[in-house]
Amino acid sequence: MTLRAKVGTYLVLAPVAILFVAPFVWMISASFQPMSTIFANPPTWVPDDPTVDGYKGFLNLGTLTQAQESQGSGDWRWFANSAFVAITITVVQTFFNALCAYAFAKRRFPGRNVIFVLFLATMMVPGQITLIPNYIIVQHIPFFGGNDWMGMGGHGWLNSYWGLIMPGVVSAFGIFLLRQFMLSIPDSLLDAARIDGAGEFRIFWNVVLPLCVPALAANAIFTFQGAWEDFLWPLLITSGDPDKTTAPVGLALFVVQNKTDWNLLFAGSVIATLPMIIVFVIFQRQFVRGIAVTGIKE
Predict the structure, then answer these.
(1) Which range among 73-82, 158-167, 206-215, 226-235 shows the weakest confidence by mean pLDDT?
(2) Of 39, 99, 168, 189, which sits 20 to 30 A from 62 (CA to CA)?
(3) Distance between CA 72 and CA 251 in Å, rounded?
(4) Which distant-in-sequence residues (6+ apart) come within 8 Å of 157 by Cβ?
(5) Is residue 29 located within the same domain as residue 169?
């Protein structure tokens, strides 16, 4: 790329980048400002007198007013629940996605292509359509939450971590992503492992997975982001139970109260955003490589 082309590219992309980053920068700045200056006109990008009272109040490190306590501000359990649910879904889903992708990419069995197409077809179904069926299934899980063997008499997995985690243990998109990457792995490597006496699971674990680290990282980032930001399903499953409330639901409930302390809300929003940024920064190189290489072989 010539110097003129590079300059032109940066002249186009720089304003777009600033446009997308500006709201997040202002949110960070507002989280360090007192209530009196947050909505000043023009907006204050660099606080004149920065304070961490918003973070202290949100995390219950300081003294909260009665109104703030009634809003449930500072409840660190929101983030603990989100972290537990998101990390668990990420680990479990990445493993099962890789296992299914290996079967579709490297195993031969009747109806393989038909089943794979059916998996892809589920991606065209909006998630909102499956909310009620999934809710009914979770409610009638046998032997959980007071249910009998017919799934009746109790609440099943409602208001539980099981209900938050289990519907997300597999993803059609993740299977597709990893399957496309695994198609680029030479079959000769797998045949050599079979000649040495390795079983299929050992081939999958010791040969295929180490070669799929970029695609696994991409799948993990997508999964963690989706699980951390999920709002509708936790809201439906937990029904406002404070012990199982996740960060997005907690922040939403914080807003709809009679009075909103915006400095606390902005502090909580910054804290809720940081995990996704940290995960992306750590796995950025593998993520970009996984997206770039996926699908090079059909």
Answers:
(1) 73-82
(2) 39
(3) 10
(4) 138, 139, 141, 144, 145, 163, 166, 237
(5) no
